[in-house]
Amino acid sequence: MIYKELNVYGYLGSKTGTVPGGRLLCWIPETPSVVSTSRRRPAVLILPGGAYRHTSPREAEPVALRFAVEGYAAFVLHYSCAPSRFPTALREAAMAMRCIREMADAYGIDPHMVAALGFSAGGHLCGSLGTLYDAAEVVDLGSPEQLRPDALALCYPVAVSWGDTHEESFENLTGGDAGLRQRLSLESLVRPDMPPVFLWHTRDDASVPCRNSLILAQALDAVGVDFALHVYRRGPHGLSTADAMAYPAQAVPEVSWDVPGWVRGAIRFFGEIGLKITDGGENV
Residues of 21-34 as b/e, b for ≥16 C-beta within 10 angstroms? Predict the structure, then answer.
């Protein structure tokens, strides 16, 4: 396993100013040369949650390691949060996508198999990246093909800016700008040419109500986006992988039996749409 850290601003030669974020942590499985020199693997960009106030460690390394075990190159972005506002985090996520694709040849990654996965507020950022990859805020960072993820996974996302939602996330993201808040409600950003979406939530999430995922799923369905929606019966907010890996120093919260299966479900969804390890063009 290769582990490395880089700053997306430094990697791409961009100025950071006083921006604190943009730190990309990389876990990349190695393929021994005696096995194959043509093997290519998918990658996933992981965007932790934290109400756009911080990035949660629980939704970072534990998730990366689970995907790395399944053969993915896994990248965690610690993006800028409050007092930074939109579009800083979006720009950093877009730069991270470009970094991953530019590193692809060196690390055996297929640049056409790069997913993005986000939790809570990171789910909002993930959805924004999957819909605003050609927006004015990021157009100077690369082509849409470089910045657009090939698939999305949104985990208990802060998706809807109106009604019963997570107020702190939108306040931190927009600084109270009502017009910007309305624009950044994910169901209003949905477009037919966005990537396929794996979406999951728990029914009794008390922090980010599952209506966020239900409303988003309706919007995806209305324009014909390929998606899968899983609403699990029981589990609190912020579960990450919902196992001891994410809760090393405390008891794992009580959840319905099927919640820990979301990781394998997301990987199978990605596989169905073509994100698989390949060797000489053939699936492994």
Answer: bbbbbbbbbebeee
